[in-house]
Each structure stands twice: as C-alpha cells, then as structure tokens.
Design brief:
The structure holds 3 protein chains of 3 kinds.
Chain A: H1 2-43, E1 60-73, H2 76-88, E2 90-91, H3 93-112, E3 119-129, E4 141-153
Antiparallel strand pairs in A: 1-4, 3-4
Helix pairs in contact in A: 1-2, 1-3
Chain B: H1 12-15, H2 21-53, H3 56-62, H4 76-93, E1 104-108, E2 115-118, E3 122-126, H5 127-132, H6 136-152, H7 154-172, H8 180-214, H9 222-229, H10 246-261
Helix pairs in contact in B: 2-7, 4-6, 6-8, 8-10, 9-10
Chain C: E1 2-3, E2 14-28, H1 31-43, H2 48-71, E3 76-88, E4 91-103
Parallel strand pairs in C: 1-3
Antiparallel strand pairs in C: 2-4, 3-4
The chains are: A alpha+beta, B mainly alpha, C alpha+beta.
C-alpha cells in the first residue's frame, strides 16, 4: 500500500499538475492573446515613440503622463519546461511568450488611459521579477511597467 | 517631423517561441532522461568502485560506533527473543562467505515484521518479526538474508548510491522547477528494480546459509507466506517497489531450494 | 541598420518615424556553467561564462529588433534602451527597444 501511495504522491501528483497546468495555462494564454489582438486593433492608431521630441506642426492641447502595468505569472508547465531548459542552457522559449504578453498588455493598459491621444512620446518599459524567496514554492511572476507622455493636438491631427 | 504609425505584424521575438512548446517538451524530456541514464550508470560504477576498495575491516572500524535506533528497554519476552536470535546468528556467522564483521542484533520496537542490515554489522529486527516467527529455521533465514546483504555490500552500496543520486539531483534539478519528478520517476523505475534484484540475491544467500547450517530448507518462506496473506498491494504495483512481491520471493526460493538440494 | 541611443543620427536627417520596435530573448545558463560560476564566485572576479552568455543574448535581442525595424521599412533605430531583468532563478531576459526611423 505504501508503495502505491508514494508512487501517487511523488509521480502522479506532479504529472497531474503539469498536465492540468498545460491545458488550463495554454487555454488562458490563447484567450489572453485573442483579447490583446482585439484591443490592439482598437488602439493601434496611437503611435508610440521613445524619443523626447515630438511634431510641433500643431499646438498641443493636452500632455498627460500615462502608465500601464501588469503582473503576470508563469504556469507550472512553463516552469517545468524552463527547469529542464536550465539544465542544458539556451533560450527559454516558454518564458518568451509570457513576457511578450506582459509587455503588450502593459502598453495596451497605458493606451487605454488615453484613448483620444494622438501620440505617446518618451515611452519607457521596465521589467522586474517578483520571484523572491528562492524556496520551491516561490511565486513566479514578472511585472511589466510601461510609461510615457501622451499628447493630444488641438486639431486632433498630428 | 513625420510620424507614420506602423506595427510589426508578428513580433520577431515571439515567432521563435510560438507553437514550439510540444517539440521543446519532448526534446528536453528526452535529453534530460538521456543525461539521467548516463549519470545513473556513472554513479553506479563509481559507488561500486569505492565500495570494493573498502575492506570489511575498514567497514567495521568506520561504523563501530554506529548505533541503530534500538528499543531502549526491551521487556522480558523481547529479551528472550533477542537472545534466541543472537544464538542463531552465532551459528550462521561461521558459514561460508559470511564477511567477518562484529555482528550484533538490535531490537526495534515496531509492529511490522521487518529486518534491516546497517553498516558495520548491525542487524535490526522488529518486534513484529520476532512475534510472527517461531521456528528456528524461519529466523535463521531472515538473518541469513541480512548476512547476504553484508556479503554483497548492499548496505554500503545503497548508502553510496542514495548519497550520489541526492547530489546529482540537487545539482541538475537544483532550481525547484518541478522537473525533479523526472529524477524521481527514475528512482521508481531503475533504482527499485536494482533493489529488487539485490533482495533476491540476498534471499538466495540466506537459503544457502540455512541449508549449510541445518541441512534442510523447509519453512524458510514462512515469513513471506504470512506477508502474502496480509498483502493488499496488487501485483503491478511491485514494479515500483523496493522489494519483490512475496509471491515472487516464495517461487524464487522454491526453485532455488530445489536446485540446492540436488 | 543604423543604431544610436540618442534621439538622432548625427549627420543624417530623420525623415519619418515609425514607432516602437523591440527585441527580446530569455536565456538560461546550463548546469555546467552554473557549477563553474559558483566555484568562481568563491574568489570573485569576472564570470566569463556569464559575460559571454549575456553578450550573446543581447546580440540576439538586438538582431530581433532589427528584423522588426526592417519589416516596418526603417533604416535606423534611435534612442535605443536595454532592459536586463532576471525572470526566474537562473533565467534572464534581455529586452531592447527603440524608435524605428527612416533617414536620408
């Protein structure tokens, strides 16, 4: 009996968590990407530049500091893949899509705060990991923070 | 200053990672397993090499002070059982191939019938074991089995392998990523199969000793028959067990005894 | 592809701005490098293996940004910023972004 119990605890449960994380995690990722794509179409018209200069053909009616941030965590399956990748080294592809999601989401949230802007200048992006502790049960998450200055021109045209 | 809003269609960053999780999973799992297999055999060979260098005398010296978790104050009946077991051990100790270690028996206050071989010649027997075995041959076989472990150096091998695997697992999967269970599955499949083989070898050693000392083998499998009656584990689960199933051990003993008596 | 981390390309005139472009990669070091580094860590000094790894990763991220910039029809990227962050224990992200422009 002990053999079966230890088998289930040591092999069955991790395997189950990985499979569940894979299914749920990838479904959530797909849904998030759909939402990102849809909102990017809506707010895609606002250009972003990370320069301080801006066109001065028209007078600026409003300049506003805008920010957007998101904390996004990696699922157990991604962590499993990354854990294996860390044995051999190389690109951790499972985390690339996570950061891509985070970054696009943060930029979108920034844009959503100024839907009538014509331009966002001096955009800066910051990433920080919120995975402190170092223990096995540590929280695995990253924060992406985007900020910039939104400009709206008088004529509504740049 | 002209600003034309253009958006990259598929970001170059993500295109390398899209839809590759499945492929990456198999590649990584297979490579990790290959690495584990190599390390597994390297550790096995290394431990074997080290253990073969440790002479029986050195072993006795190193583990002289080793004290197993023995029952503090055994009651009168337990003391009697212990004395009897010690007398049987003294009889077996002089048998062929038994390494010259300073053997002693310690009594473990536990209900489950079991016996252990500790480094340095200490044999632990549980109260449960002594209670279910009444015939001398039955006890002799259990002790002979443990002496078999000493002869094959299984106690040292097991210790060395356990330490080796722990270190390798910590180095390779040190990140706490959930990938450790790959190593664990390895333990379940390979290491336990190895352990079952060692147990069978010890069984055969035990029956040989008993046959040499008593000239008969009837009753050696009594313990396994008792265990078999109380067995609730399905046969397939023994694939992942450290010991072979009682049924398998009884059959193996039977065929080996037949070969022995010829 | 011209790349600067100031807002212009000296000696050239920027005729059109296309918006942000970015490149990124997440890299892990392998166990062997890790062991060597932890040994080196006892005495301090440069961890060559890690320097190379991050250099390599940064180059890849930059290459990906350049791919994006080309896709937009740009021939220069100005005001480039690097962002290196450790995502998990043993994995770092290299992120690079800038504004894609067209110069004469």
């Amino acid at each position: 009996m002990e053999a079966i119990i230890s088998l289930v605890i040591q092999l069955g449960i991790p395997l189950l968590i990985i499979v569940v994380a894979l299914i749920v995690g990838s479904a959530l990722e797909r849904r998030h990407y759909r939402s990102i794509d849809e909102r990017e179409r809506r707010y895609g018209g606002i250009p972003l530049i990370n320069e301080k200069k801006y066109p001065t053909l028209q007078p600026v009616a409003e300049a506003r500091f805008v920010t957007g941030s998101v904390v996004i965590s990696y699922d157990y399956f991604k962590r499993f893949l990354a854990g294996l990748r860390m044995i051999f080294g190389g690109e951790v592809k499972s985390y690339v899509s996570l950061l891509d999601r985070g970054r696009r989401e943060a930029i979108l949230r920034m844009k959503e705060k100024c839907p009538d802007a014509d331009l966002i200048v001096n955009v800066r992006l910051e990433t920080s990991s919120i995975s402190k502790g170092g223990s096995k049960q540590r929280l695995g998450a990253v924060e992406v923070f985007a900020y910039g200055t939104a400009l709206r021109y008088v004529a509504g045209e740049r | 200053m002209i600003i034309t809003n253009r958006q990259p269609k598929e970001t170059a960053n993500i295109s390398s990672a899209r839809g590759t999780a499945g492929k990456e999973l198999w590649q990584l799992v297979l490579s990790a397993l290959a690495l584990l297999i190599i390390l597994y055999f390297v550790i096995g060979i290394a431990v074997n090499l080290v253990v073969s260098r440790i002479s029986v005398e050195t072993e006795a010296k190193i583990f002289n002070n080793f004290k197993a978790a023995a029952a503090k104050n055994p009651d009168a009946s337990s003391r009697k059982q212990l004395e009897r077991a010690s007398a049987i051990l003294a009889k077996l100790q002089t048998g062929k191939n038994v390494p010259p270690l300073p053997y002693r028996i310690v009594f473990i206050d536990h209900e489950k019938p079991n016996a252990f071989a500790f480094p340095g010649g200490t044999i632990g027997v549980t109260k449960g074991l002594m209670d279910v075995l009444d015939d001398e041959i039955e006890v002799a076989f259990v002790l002979g089995h443990e002496l078999g472990h000493f002869y094959h150096r299984d106690h040292l091998q097991g210790m060395g392998r356990a330490i080796g695997f722990k270190i390798v697992m910590a180095v390779v999967f040190g990140s706490g990523s959930g990938a450790e269970f790959l190593g664990q599955s390895f333990d379940f499949v390979f290491e336990r199969k190895y352990s079952r083989e060692r147990e069978k070898k010890a069984d055969r050693f035990g029956i040989e000793l008993v046959y040499a000392a008593y000239g008969k083998v009837e009753g050696v499998d009594r313990l396994f028959r008792i265990l078999l009656d109380n067995d609730t584990i399905p046969d397939w689960a023994y694939m992942f067990s450290t010991h072979p199933s009682s049924r398998e051990r009884i059959d193996d003993l039977k065929s080996y005894a037949a070969a022995l008596q010829k | 592809m011209l790349i600067t981390n100031i807002e212009e390309i000296p000696g050239k005139k920027i005729v059109e701005h296309y918006g942000l472009v970015a490149g990124s990669t997440v890299r892990a070091k392998h166990v062997g490098r890790d062991i060597m580094a932890s040994l080196k860590n006892l005495v301090g000094g440069e961890l060559k293996g890690y320097t190379e790894l991050l250099e390599d990763a940064r180059r890849q991220a930059m290459d990906r940004m350049i791919v994006q910039a080309k896709e937009l029809g740009a021939n220069a990227v100005v005001n480039v910023r690097f962002n290196t962050s450790s995502i998990a224990q043993g994995a770092s992200e290299l992120y690079i972004y800038g504004t894609a422009v067209k110069v004469d």
